[in-house]
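Entry:
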Amino acid sequence: MRKPGALALLLAFSWLSFQTASLAAQDWDDWDFDAVDMYARGDQTFTITLGVVMPTVFVGHGGRIDHNFSPPVGGGGSLAYTHFLGPNLFVGGEIGVSFNYTVGRNTLFIIPIGLRAGWQFLFRGFEFPLTLTFGLAPQRHLDSGYFGMFLRAGASAFYRFSPEWSFGLNTDWTWFPQRPRQYEATPGDMNVHGNMLGITISARYHF
């Protein structure tokens, strides 16, 4: 008499487990493909980024100038915090560091610290953020230092691996304007405008 009862209990438990797993899978699919469910006001991310930084066009003294970096590829990384105002719009901040070597085997260090805002396009498990970052950029080369600003525009492609993690590839263009002190009383064409291209990979933690 006990065997039919135990069998019925086992079948009921198996059926309940199957239904729970099915509902969980359905919820994951709905979450994965529904932009409204993926992000809501108050959602946050923390991003770690690493990659290469390449000097591109440097303009100053009335024309294009040699940026004096060799090899032309340096490196860098950053930590960023993001707060979502809705499913697509976000704001936040970041701090990073980058380095490039000169022909004389010296190193230029830049520490950009800025506020960022952006808009994120969503398609199934893929996310495509566009960002704009503005802030201050302390710079150091040998015994010389400069405290300037920077403006960065970036585009990324991420894959949402799980509710907590996404991984992606980024490209960004950063403008570093400089006005050397010895030229403060001279016309504006003595300013230097450095441009850097970054290609990086990122891991984002969602919470």
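The first helix runs from residue 2 to 33.
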